Amino acid sequence: MARKAVAVNIYVVTHPQATHHVDGLVGGWFDSDLTDLGRRQADAIAAELAQEIAGEPVDIVSSDLRRASRTARTIAARLGTEPRQDRDLREKSYGEAEGRPQSWLRERQIPLPPVGDRLRHDEGIVGAETRWQLAERAYAAMRRIETSGAADTIVVTHGGAATLLLAAWIGMPIESSGQVQFGLTSGGITKLHGDARNHSHVIAYLNRTAHLAA
Q1: Is 96 contained in some domain?
Q2: In what order do the strands lie in the sheet with 59-62?
Q3: pLDDT by 10-residue block (mean), the chain, 214 residues
Q4: How many domains is the chain built from?
Q5: Which CATH number characterizes residue 52's domain?
Q6: Burial group, residue 28, by CB count within 10 angstroms (0-12, 13-18, 19+)
Q7: 25 contacts 99 by C-beta, under 8 angstroms
């Protein structure tokens, strides 16, 4: 007998305000922490997800960088579970620019071209990842999330990585992902839904932020 299809919900959370945001520093793999406001925002995210998931078992996976992992721990504590970490959910590495002022990066960075191979573009920053390397990580992470068997999963990550997770979810070829941008903001929640009836991949809502106003 054929196995019954199961609906899947994935909640992609972009971590809330971090110290590098307010200090005007380059993030990437720079291990900044949440600000006091960011911690309050993490509490609001946790409350919003607890209301939506309503006591159902949930898997929580996050980037291992502090601003994301602290957010994941706050959510997990509210939901009575433990998060796990996946380094592939990290933001794009900016190499030697990480932790430096944004102005330092802007003065040296070679801008993305409007056409051509934007994914493999070399920004001219020593040690920085290409967007292709970030895309490979994000696509691999989404494959693991989709096949984990969890009916509800919360993913805590970063803005650039989150865009590529969504591209992977909707089946966009990785070669095309260099052109996409979903405009996700700090502390936003995006719900992805796998429809068990017609096996479609739905973006149920994008970048919900009303909880942050509270």
Answers
A1: yes
A2: 84-85, 59-62, 152-157, 8-14, 189-194, 201-208
A3: 61 98 98 98 98 92 98 97 98 98 97 93 97 98 93 97 98 96 96 91 97 90
A4: 1
A5: 3.40.50.1240
A6: buried
A7: yes
Distance CA(136)–CA(10), nearest Å, equals 19
Q: What is the DSSP letter of 85?
A: E
Specify the length of the chain in residues.
214
Q: Which domain holds residue 152?
A: 8-213
| Cβ 61 vs Cβ 155: under 8 Å | yes
CA distance 121 to 199: 35
CA distance 1 to 55: 31
Does residue 15 lie within any of the structural domains? yes
> For residues 1 and 156, what is the distance between their CA atoms, to the nearest angstrom?
37
